[in-house]
Amino acid sequence: MDSPTPLQPNRTDLILQTQIVLHCRLRSEQPESFQPNLASDYVRPLKPFRLAPPHGNLGQRGKKKMDPARTPLGKLLLDEITPVVMVLSTPLVEEACLKNGLSLVEMLSPFCVFNNIDVPVRTASDQPYRIQKFKLRLFYASDIRHPNLEVAKERLKQVITRAGEKDDLYSEPPQTSNLLSSSESEIQPSWFEFFNKELVRTMSFSDHEAFDHPVACLLVVSSKDEQPINRFVDLFNTNKLPSLLNDGAMDPKILKHYLLVHDYQDSDQEKATKILADMRSTFGLHDCRLLCINSSDHELIERQDNPWAPYKSGDLPSQCLGCFLNVDDYNEIKDLLQDLSSKHIIPYMEQKIRALNQEVSATRKGFRNQIKNLWWRKGKEDVTDSPAGPMYTFSSIESQIRVLGDYAFMLRDYELALSNYRLISTDYKLDKAWKRYAGIQEMMGLTFFMLDQSRKEAEYCMENAFNTYLKIGSSGQQNATRCGLWWVEMLKARDQHKDAAVVYFRICDEEPLHSAVMLEQGSYCYLLSKPPMLRKFGFHLVLSGDQYKKSDQIKHAIRTYRTAVSVFEGTTWGHIKDHVHFHIGEWYAILGMYELAVKHMLEVLACTHQSKTMQELFLKDFLETVQKTGKTFEVLKLQLPKLNISSLKVAFEDHRTYASPAAASVRESLWRSLEEDMIPSLPTARTNWLELQSKLVSKYRESNVCVVGEAVKVDIEFKNPLQIPISISSVSLICDLSAISDELNSDACSSTVGSQNDDDSSNLTTDRDMSSENFSFSSSEVDFSLGGGDTTLVQLMVAPKVEGILQISGVRWKLSGSVVGLHKFDSNMKNKIMKGRRKAKHSPCDNLKFIVIKSLPKLEGSVHSLPEKAYAGDLRHLMLELRNPSEFTVQNLKLKISHPRFLNIGSHGNLKTEFLSCLEKKMASERSVVHANSNNLSQTVFLFPKETLIQGEMPLLWPLWLRAAVPGHISLYISVYYEMGDISSVMRYRTLRMHYNLQVLPSLDVSFQVSPCPSRLQEFLVRMDVINRTSSESFHVHQLSAVGHQWEISLLQPVDTIFPSESLMAGQALTCFFRLKSYRKPLTSTDKVSTLSPLLGSDVRLRPEGSNEPLFDISCSPLADFHHCERLHQKMSHQGDPNAVDFILISQPLKDNITPGIADPPHLFSHHACHCSTSSTSPISWLVDGPRTLFHDFSASFREINLKMVIYNSSEAVASICIKTFDSPSTSGHTSEGTADLSSGDQTGWHDASVVNNIKVTSDLLGARVGKSLSLESVPPFIWSGASSTRVQLEPMSATEIPLQICVFSPGIYDLSNYVLQWSLPSSVDSGNQEGKSQHSGTCQGYPYYLSVLQSV
Amino acid sequence: MATTACFIIVSRNDIPIYEAEVGSATKREDAAQLHQFILHAALDIVQDLAWTTSAMFLKAIDRFNDLVVSVYVTAGHTRFMLLHDSRNDDGIKSFFQEVHELYIKILLNPLYLPGSRITSSHFDTKVRGLARKYL
């Protein structure tokens, strides 16, 4: 504490040192010229060795050199901690001054700041130095008291409010990047500094610190006053003096200076001079002065930079201030104050320091005094622990040390100040005078700062002071704030912005307004710290904004939030974003700036992460705000509801028209392939257009085409991201329709911008359009409401009414009836337009651009009574209706159906006839019609008769036949082509596309197995398996027909034994056998079986005997047609086999389970089984013919028996056949081979795997047969006579006879099966066939042929 | 169990990819955004501190009134941030380590795009379970 080395005033040292540093640097460049001047100006020959310390240690540590006096805090301290002069004046003085619009203190204040006063001072230990800068603070005696807190608060509030008024809330908020690049003074609002100063001033004139105690007293009396001398005495009446002087906190014996003010406008100077002489004689020569003012007589003095302006806070124009004070007065005031400070106050303070220092040294310094003091303090251990601590009067040594310290501080003798502060600090601590202790710590911190010494200690002192102030409770809060502000400034001066921000945060107290300002300042500290802490910046701005809001400073709140918005821009922290935007919006709404409010609130609308209540709150507030604006807002990219752009689908009709939306959603390629051979090829179509409107078409070849009066449909999906329902109304498309002439002239590049709806007609349409049509197009409006999280697909339409270019640019909707949301379909989005490949390569923008052409006829079509569900095999009569609503005719109609197997075109003739009756068997003469129709089938496109025109009200009806061919889901596509009757139209033809879905349920499974009859050539056994696969339906099996004139089919058993119950119940299976006979002549087999030959055949009635229902004619139109399709479809299984047989099973549903009330249309089911192979194993078949029983007398001779083998070649090639006979029974190797062949060959005749067990039966049968032949081994042998091998060539479809002969030697039963037929076909014939299905060559085991030879008697 | 605890995983791009209020205190309406604000601001501190140490667990790095922010930085610079009012350093450390393991499992999922939001409900239940266990 007591430093052994004498502490020198080092202000001069400091200057000196910097100069030397500068000097040295300069000298290296300019060796000679500088030194003398610098030295003579600043460096007095002091002790040369004192140059470096006390700052040397700092320099050595390499820290940044800093002049504390130049920092903001240094300036603040030099400004604020300066001697106070108490002013006591008479009313007349004030009156004289008020002529200038100023009070006395205000008039004098500008001259209290001295920048170069240059007063020599000596320290307590006689070290001389000079004071350059000096300042006096003048206060009226009445102001020297602790300021009223409430008043102070009110004033601070006003400061803030006024600052708030100036803010321009409409301007763009600052950008973060700008904030970062600008300096501190640019970022922070300028009123912060002012506010801080005001806040510090509210703490002034406290009794625990001495620097606010008046050093001198200025007594002012006017020359007009009566008895001026007495007035002077009266003025210093103790009653009027501040409490500080009265209650003993400070010494009432202070320096007094007497001033006589004389107003020139009142009288001459003589009287004043007389009074001055009196004064001098009374109060002393040097302490009295005369001040003459208002010298300028009735003429106002205008000043450019009025010195009083900064000191006057009122609203008076600054020109009026000091208007009667001319240059003389000005100089006189200046002289007065300069004299006062340099000749009176400074010497007085110097003197006082010296005196006090001596006293302190005498009582407190030295070892003895310290011990004594310590002991004495210990004795006062049980002092009351009041927050203010014990009362110290001015005469107490503690107060004197404090005064000494403060005076030393004010005269910049910081070393002395520090030593005294240190001395007193421990005393106060021991006395538990916490407030004083804190004050001392505060001053110590500041002194350390001013000395630029030991930063750590300075900070420690400040923190200690701050905490101690806080500890003493509410009374210390204000002081803590001041202490904190100084501390912050100290940290800021040392670039410790981060720490400063923390301190700002700690300064916050209960007062929300102060907290708000502090937090805001703190936030700027975060911004200024290196590296900038933007998130903290934003967070503290938000905190500050909340505090501003609490204290009703909405403008400030908005200002802070606006800055925060720029910080949090683009953040993905949802709650933060919502909070900021929602509150700023709310506050704008409070201020009535609804547009801005709405703008911010829009940001929070789509807050999916918020809870339901928050979403409700957001939406409610938003809608309220919007309502308050009284306008309907148009908001681009409104977040509510969300538009699913990828769901955008555009459906329009150019030459392709659709009967239903379902048809429109079918892939274009499907239609394209369907219509391939129906529509004229593209180039020719285009030439047709070019003839007419070549210009238009060539220009907009890429664009889509739509027709006047026909709607373009846009499907788009809306999604509600919130959990609460929202209502959407008036959803419509934003479109633009500009006339063609316009577009052509302006070269199409002018994309017509502007949201034009049907309400406001286009500004780009030409006048002609305007006059002729009010609205150039009409668009649909859709209303709907979306529940929480719902998604809705909306179809919007726009129908142009005039020709031109139609551009769909976006969609608009109304949210809750108040906000209009717009969404532009911009070019970068991917919209899915289902129309063809031609469009795919253009930008999506073009896809929403349409050329509108003149209105055209458009067919509407539908298929009546098409069921959605049908059982397989169901045959129905349908009606196609085509309608043309326009007055123009269409002609040249064509129709194509995607699945002729399911849907067939009837003839116009059976439009009228009864459904079933037309199918019934009729006389042969009627068949010609049917044949003509079946000829139509050869073409895949059905041409309507040439004379068919559709016009006006008359619809065209055309019969169709539906047959549900196979179970499953089937999409049926029907396309109708038609040409315009009006040749001048741009489009020559159009197509109508219809699409239907059909679900086919399984009904009857029919399978056939045909096996050749072993005993007869050309006869076959047919086994039919029928299973009812339905779950509930029962069927009558009506008839079975074998198709083809060469076949005749007949029952093996009577019907009644097959169908005891007459019907087939659900799930029931049935097997029955038929005999099938081929009438084909072997020699006529060369004529080809034409696929187009009329379907003749033989039928078997499967109804019980009693029923006389007619048989159905399978050669009749629908049945025959469908059979043909079935044939084509089932072709792959067995191609080109002339021996294949087709069966048609016709059944009817049981009528019982149909309610009698409903007139159900008659149903007919037909099941077609085609290409049932008759030649199961090989292309050849043979029959051994001969006697069965013979009588012979073996005693005479052996018997030769002649047999005949008829071989039939059923293939279409020449077969070479080799007959081999064996005398011994065939080896097992042969038989097994044959068995395998047989079983594999058998399968070709079967369709359904469900009857697999039948194959097994067959093979068992074969096996048994082979076994039988083996078992006959013991039979007496016979021998084949003649060649053991015969080879024949057999023409296709022909038969030949080969004689065979055997010799038997004894009676017995002979099995003549021990021969094989080896056949082979030329391979070229079979090359086209399916592999593995037919053989090129094979071996057939002989049939058993039993011959009984008996001994003749 | 802590009365207030807000756990957030912040991706390396400063985007929150997982958020959970795991405290036992009854939820206040404005708590969510205050917690977000505090944690968001604490990222500034993490940014400074993360490179000064090789430890993943940075301990308590920031505070706001009585709420403390503890941070754990993974090698991929994903930050686990916990806002809490309890002083249980060991528990928090274990919590972070176990969550890190869970997070790595999430990362191993080939269908998870690193840096995207963690929507796995399994992860959520596990994290809440860990919070009950350690905090």
TrEMBL record, chain A:
Taxonomic superkingdom: Eukaryota
Residue stretches making up the TPPC8 second Ig-like domain: 873-992
Organism: Carya illinoinensis
Pfam families: Ig_TPPC8_1st (PF24545), Ig_TPPC8_2nd (PF24544), Ig_TPPC8_C (PF24542), TRAPPC-Trs85 (PF12739)
Gene3D superfamilies the UniProt entry points to: Tetratricopeptide repeat domain
Domain TPPC8 C-terminal Ig-like: 1187-1314
Residue span of region Disordered: 749-770
Occurrences of domain TPPC8 first Ig-like (ranges): 668-833
Protein name (record): Trafficking protein particle complex subunit 8
Recorded GO CC terms: TRAPPIII protein complex
SUPFAM superfamilies, per the entry: TPR-like
Automatic annotation (TrEMBL), chain B:
Segments forming a coiled coil: none
One GO cellular component, as annotated: cytoplasm
Biological-process GO terms, alphabetical: endoplasmic reticulum to Golgi vesicle-mediated transport
Database matches in SUPFAM superfamilies: SNARE-like
Entry-linked PANTHER family: TRAFFICKING PROTEIN PARTICLE COMPLEX SUBUNIT 2 (PTHR12403)
The protein's name in its UniProt record: Trafficking protein particle complex subunit 2
Lineage per the UniProt record: Eukaryota, Viridiplantae, Streptophyta, Embryophyta, Tracheophyta
